[in-house]
Design brief:
Layout (H helix, E strand, L loop, with lengths): L10 E8 L6 E7 L5 E6 L7 E3 L5 E2 L3 H11 L7 H18 L3 E3 H15 L1 H11 L5 H12 L1
C-alpha cells in the first residue's frame, strides 16, 4: 500500500485489529521509507441502496457525507472517532438489512438522529435543529425537554 505521506510503495502492517462488531479490520501500517505510521480499514464491498432526496432525485449512498454530518454535529464534543465509526457501521448495517434498492433520505436522517442521541445529547440537538428546521426557541426547548426525559 502506498504511503500517504511520501508515496513510497512499500509499507508494513505492524498491528491488526478486528472491530468490536467484526464488521471491519483496522490495520496500523508503517512506511519503509519515512517510517511514519498510518491506519487503514478493510471492510467488505457491498451495494447500498440509492438515496431518494426530498425533491425526487436519486443519488448514490456516500459514507463520506454521513461521516461529515456526524463530524459537524459532534464538533468539539468528547466523542472518539471509533465511536463515530461504530455508529456509521450500525446505520450501514440497517440500510443493508432493509433489503431495498432505494431508501428515502429522511429514513437515514432518523437513523443518524437515533445514533447521535446515544452518543451525545448536545450533538443530537445540533443535528435535529438543522434536520427538522427549527424556526424558533420553542422548537429547541421542546427538543431539550424531550432529551431530559
Amino acid at each position: 500500500m502506498k504511503c500517504p505521506f511520501c508515496s513510497h510503495l512499500e509499507t508494513q502492517v505492524v498491528e491488526t485489529r478486528v472491530s468490536e462488531d467484526g464488521v471491519f479490520i483496522r490495520r496500523r501500517r508503517q512506511c519503509g521509507a519515512c517510517e511514519k505510521r498510518f491506519t487503514t480499514y478493510e471492510r467488505p464491498e457491498v451495494s447500498f441502496p440509492a438515496i431518494v432526496k426530498k425533491d425526487g432525485r436519486r443519488i448514490e449512498y456516500d459514507r463520506g457525507k454521513l461521516l461529515a454530518s456526524f463530524n459537524l454535529a459532534l464538533r468539539k464534543r468528547p466523542v472518539s472517532t471509533l465511536q463515530i465509526d461504530s455508529a456509521i457501521e450500525r446505520i450501514e448495517e440497517k440500510l443493508l438489512n432493509l433489503g431495498q434498492r432505494e431508501v428515502i433520505s429522511s429514513r437515514i436522517g432518523e437513523l443518524v438522529m437515533r445514533e447521535l442521541k446515544k452518543l451525545d445529547k448536545v450533538a443530537y440537538i445540533r443535528f435535529a435543529s438543522v434536520y427538522r428546521s427549527f424556526e424558533d426557541i420553542d422548537d429547541f426547548r421542546a427538543m431539550v425537554d424531550e432529551v431530559r426525559k
